[in-house]
Amino acid sequence: MRKLLALIILLMSLPTYAFNLSFLEYTPTYYFTHSDMDMMQATVNRALNSGRDNQRFNWNNPETTAFGHVTVSDTTRQDGTLCRRAKIFNSAKTVTGEASYRFCKINGEWKTA
Questions:
Q1: R_g of the chain computed on alpha carbons
Q2: What's the Cα-to-Cα distance from 23 to each of 29, 30, 50, rounded to whole Å?
Q3: Which 3 state secondary structure label does DSSP give 72?
Q4: For the chain, how many helices (H) and strands (E)?
Q5: Contacts by 34-40 with C-beta closer than 8 Å and gap 24+?
Q6: CA–CA separation, 88 and 99 (whole Å)
Q7: Per-position b or e across 89-111, b if 16+ CB within 10 A of its CB
């Protein structure tokens, strides 16, 4: 009975979940292929791991024409934790977007803060 109830709750929430993500249709990542996403994520990690503040790292996928760049800045160390800001620009299918995120390296992995 518990499994059935959990399944019903999950199925009832799916349309709401899909509706709440509809804003992604207006972002470049909506049009990304798996290889686009892999390239972008690798570039973000490379920039966070080895970039100097205000250094720009570019990526592009000639197969899909998607491209972007990452610029890191505001490197700080708080209580021994390395934190950085990354401004991420992406473009796919003539849709462009830019956002800035703060990342901190926790247990060897970059996490949004």
A1: 18
A2: 11, 9, 32
A3: strand
A4: 2, 5
A5: 35/61, 35/63, 35/64, 36/61, 36/64, 36/66, 36/92, 40/68, 40/88, 40/90
A6: 5
A7: bbbbeeeeeeeeeebbeeeeebe
Three-state secondary structure call for residue 100: strand
Q: How far apart are CA 10 and CA 33, in angstroms?
A: 27
What are residue 82's DSSP bridge partners?
77
8 A C-beta contact, residue 16 and residue 24: no
At residue 6, the 3 state secondary structure works out as helix
Q: What is the pLDDT of residues 50-101, one digit of tens each?
A: 999 999 999 999 999 999 999 999 999 988 899 999 999 999 998 888 889 8
- Are 43 and 70 spatial neighbours (Cβ–Cβ below 8 Å)? yes
CB 110 within 8 A of CB 103: yes
Provide the sign of the torsion angle of the four alpha carbons 32, 34, 39, 43, taken in this order.
Answer: positive
